[in-house]
UniProtKB/TrEMBL annotation:
It comes from Dillenia turbinata. The keyword Transport does not apply. InterPro entries: GH28_Enzymes (IPR051801), Glyco_hydro_28 (IPR000743), Pectin_lyas_fold (IPR012334), Pectin_lyase_fold/virulence (IPR011050). Residues 1-29 form the signal peptide. SUPFAM superfamilies: Pectin lyase-like (SSF51126). Belongs to the glycosyl hydrolase 28 family. Keywords: Glycosidase, Hydrolase, Signal. GO terms for biological process: carbohydrate metabolic process. The keyword Signal applies. GO terms for molecular function: polygalacturonase activity. This is Glycoside hydrolase, family 28.
Amino acid sequence: MALQSALPAIETVAILGLLLLLNTRNAESRRSRIQGCFEYSAISCRAYTASLTDFGGVGDGTTLNTDAFQAAINYLSQFAGFGGSQLFVPPGKWLTGSFNLTSHFTLYLHKDAVILATQDIEQWPLIDPLPSYGRGRDAPGGRYASLIFGNNLTDVVITGDNGTIDGQGDLWWQKFKKGELKYTRPYLIEIMYSENIQISNLTLLNSPSWHVHPVYSSNILVQGLTIIAPVTVPNTDGINPDSCTNTRIEDCYIVSGDDCIAVKSGWDEYGIAFGMPTKQLVIRRLTCISPDSAVIALGSEMSGGIQDVRAEDILAINSESGVRIKTAIGRGGYVKDIYVRRMTMKTMKWAFWMTGNYGSHADENYDPNALPIIQGINYRDMVAENVTMAARLEGISGDPFTGICISNVTIEMSPHSKKVPWNCTDVAGISSGVIPQPCAQLADQGSEYISACDFPTDNLPIENLEVRTCSYRAKYL
Ligand SMILES: *[C@@H]1O[C@H](CO)[C@@H](O)[C@H](O)[C@H]1NC(C)=O
Ligand SMILES: *[C@@H]1O[C@H](CO)[C@@H](O)[C@H](O)[C@H]1NC(C)=O
Ligand SMILES: *[C@@H]1O[C@H](CO)[C@@H](O)[C@H](O)[C@H]1NC(C)=O
Ligand SMILES: *[C@@H]1O[C@H](CO)[C@@H](O)[C@H](O)[C@H]1NC(C)=O
Ligand SMILES: *[C@@H]1O[C@H](CO)[C@@H](O)[C@H](O)[C@H]1NC(C)=O
Ligand SMILES: *[C@@H]1O[C@H](CO)[C@@H](O)[C@H](O)[C@H]1NC(C)=O
Ligand SMILES: *[C@@H]1O[C@H](CO)[C@@H](O)[C@H](O)[C@H]1NC(C)=O
């Protein structure tokens, strides 16, 4: 029934011409509808568009739309081989539980569309834990499926003219703090085992836990996201690339109760066995406020390895630390070839922080001989002001963190700062042109080596990805 009545909804096309005529006729026959023309850039444009209202969606903020979303997407999935499809979410408040995406598909939110996550926990299906974690992050066993979930897909776009997806996480945060949850909290958007993904031009609010979680995926473009959650709530990380290759995150503004970006690759013996690193990651033009966490965290789950991360043009305000490496005995894996430049930091506890004893194990079966390798960490061309401690660099005894390079960095200490701004143990590397004078473990090379620390000059494949301009017309109430 829903499927048949949806057929006339295929009334919008990327290319004009004859089909524009059809559109005009439709508009005449439905004068009560608003005709809108939308333009945006995406990795692919789509041949077919339908509106959520064609599938019984009601945007009153109280009607549950889970079935409407899923029916629409199941219906539109048949166009995968015929130019792909798009689901238009009109202005309104669309309450929903978790739904699954499909391939060659765009979810487009009008600027006044708000997708609201239901707070009825019964509505959230349970799925298996991630194999590289062995268990849920909050609790052993399964986890709630994310609000917007994609598994085994290719060519998926989630975008809008800054439309909103609100996780209404308050209930989850409270239950988590009281220890009342049996399973791990859902994420706002999770895409797994997928490739060619774009998530852009959206406002994401109040996720129950992490906001954006691409995992076991490749070729991922994240652009123009505003992510906001209260700074006091648990684990509301912004964007967490996890065992992903070729990812580009740019032009994002993130304020949250945990790391703005946390780069991950699995947990202890499960992550080691799964063995899937995060590599070829670009992060640029990020603004972050994270009073209790990091602007960019590497770990703590890094057991599949993290390699070739390039971050630049970052503004950090009132955050606990700038770049933080978190690891522990038992993690195994590696964090290597990390390049960060042009970071401006205002009001920080630590500009740089590395922690070798983060702890937090999946279970007691981790291998005490699985030592992480932390090597080739490059920070250059940065200024910081009002900083309490310049750096706390804490390697692992018998497993030092090596190849650390810090050059051309000026850190202005706050009036309340510690007398010794650098605290280094079990680390080795070099420095040049760094104020205040670094610890002796980072041997000063003199000011002629001010450009000593590497930043690659080549482009990663994801930097060469080109987007197209897509335009289409839609009618909505
Ligand atoms: C969504 O996908 C998950 C995992 O792939 C599956 O368990 C679930 O049944 C799917 N839900 C729907 C409504 O198809
Ligand atoms: C993944 O998708 C492909 C193509 O759609 C399909 O053939 C395959 O069965 C899917 N695998 C799983 C595990 O869902
Ligand atoms: C998107 O909306 C958020 C929240 O209202 C706002 O802070 C942000 O500036 C908007 N972004 C753009 C690009 O308009
Ligand atoms: C989407 O975001 C990008 C980057 O922030 C911006 O350049 C572009 O104008 C935005 N597009 C729309 C349709 O808002
Ligand atoms: C040092 O870093 C600043 C930015 O903090 C930059 O403007 C300047 O060009 C850098 N100097 C060198 C020699 O690279
Ligand atoms: C400096 O940092 C402290 C916290 O360490 C904060 O209370 C104060 O407002 C900051 N000052 C400025 C000028 O930002
Ligand atoms: C320096 O760090 C070590 C741990 O690496 C810690 O035990 C010690 O208290 C710190 N010293 C200061 C002065 O903060």
